[in-house]
Amino acid sequence: MKYQAIKGVKDILPKDIGKWHFLEKTAKELFETFCYYEIRVPVFEKTTVFSRSIGEDTDIVEKEMYTFKDKGDESITLRPEGTASIARAFVEHQMYNPASVVKLYYSGPMFRYERPQSGRFRQFYQIGVEAFGSEDPSIDAEVIFILMELLRRVGIPSLELNLNNIGCTACRPIYRDKLQKYFNSRLNALCKNCNQRNVKNPLRILDCKNKGCIEIVNNAPTIDQFRCEKCKVNFDQVQNLLNKLDTPFKINLRLVRGLDYYSRTAFEVLASGLGAQNAVAGGGRYDGLVKEFGGPQTPAVGFAMGVERIISLVEHQGKFTFKPNVFIVSLGDIAKEAAFQLLNKLRMDAIPSDWSSNQGSLKSQMRKADRSGADFTLIIGENELKNEKLILRNMQTSQQEEIPLKNIVESVKSRIKS
Ligand code: ATP
Ligand code: MG
Fold it and tell me: Which candidate among 37, 121, 189, 330 keeps its CA 20 to 30 Å from the CA of 146?
């Protein structure tokens, strides 16, 4: 029988993992500099954690969730995103503290039953941050800045930060009604999906990728005409602070997010070179979510970025591949045993080292040494052992030298460093 991974789910192989480590390490360092600390939440939750918070009539909940009954007949869902679980954990562990902002980051797999295609998978990874406990626009600006700085540090070219303020519980309902009326008189020109969307959540029509719908949306009323005074001021402040941090953005009045819990600040980062799946990250403010989970009213803001889409834009594959510093080649049984011991010594001294445990001929071992990408090859034959001198070959220059067996680890180390 031939086994294959499930459609839309990918293995990440050692040849590619270097980029992942680079991104994860860069993110961790940056987040911790901004005093965001890691939280790890389960990959599955009770279904209602997602359905209630993300919104019953969103794409994620309607079509994309991996939901199943467990053996206790409980409805379980593999997390489609991180924010809902983190808000649930925040309330469950009473992490709220009126005196401080709780700043968290996370990283891990998410699951959505989508049509697999380039940049769109059924298991994919996200890295994100969430800041709970402040309404201050400086937190919105901080979160957005961290995202843009991370993308800059990993070297993603041609990014566009789209920014909007989608109103709050005071002003958004008014906009929503206006929008609904506008679409109601144009239902014939909207796709079937959008006809349904208009009943419960007309804002989601703004997100439709259908050509006919886009044309209608282009002339639809925009949120800026409806924002309340507080949202107007807030949006100005967020923009001002982003300017202060030299973070360019483009106002996009049609930007809404595909999840219900957002309010005020909403943003998305687009990258060129990814085709249709060009959104690398998105986020915004979600001031009502903690309360929804039974906690006290707690404003919050965060982002999530799609790791695969970013990885596909990280260049210089060679820079991230693993290779040993030293490859040991041995000839004969006695030398093999000595090589085994020496190999372990090098490794215990934190020098990445390898050999061919199958030994084989000198020629085939040299070929393996070459293929391994090692900086140096150490050659041990019985004569070398007798004379207590080994041959060290610099794989780049092909120069060979004899070095004494005594203090060999130190000698090798000094050459690796130089
Ligand atoms: P899209 O419009 O591409 O469907 P989304 O709005 O559903 O994105 P979010 O829920 O905001 O995405 O998730 C944040 C990021 O996670 C996206 O910007 C994207 O980079 C990534 N992402 C979302 N869904 C997938 C997927 N199925 N496969 C790979 N990456 C994804
Ligand atoms: Mg989506």
Answer: 121
Residue minimizing CA distance to atom 8 of ligand 1: 279
| 200: Cβ contacts below 8 Å, ≥ 6 apart | 57
Cβ–Cβ < 8 Å for 242, 145? yes
| Position in ligand 1 atom list of the atom nearest CA 304 | 14
- Tens-digit pLDDT profile for residues 369-389: 999 999 999 999 999 999 999
- Ligand 1 pocket mutation, candidates 106, 121, 126, 164, criterion most atoms within 8 A of CB: 126
Tokens (6 digits) for 10: 């990918």
- Give the Å distance between the CA of 270 and the centre of ligand 2: 14
Q: Is 220 exposed, middle or buried (0-12, 13-18, 19+ CB in 10 A)?
A: middle
Please name the residue whose Cα sits nearest to atom 18 of ligand 1.
281
Enter the tokens of residue 218. Answer: 């282009």
Q: Which of 119, 49, 120 is nearest to 85 (CA)?
A: 49
pTM of the model: 0.91
Q: What is the mean pLDDT of residues 197-209?
A: 90
Q: Which ligand is the nearest neighbour of the Cα of 303?
A: 1
Q: What is the pLDDT of residues 8-31, one digit of tens each?
A: 999 999 888 999 999 999 999 999
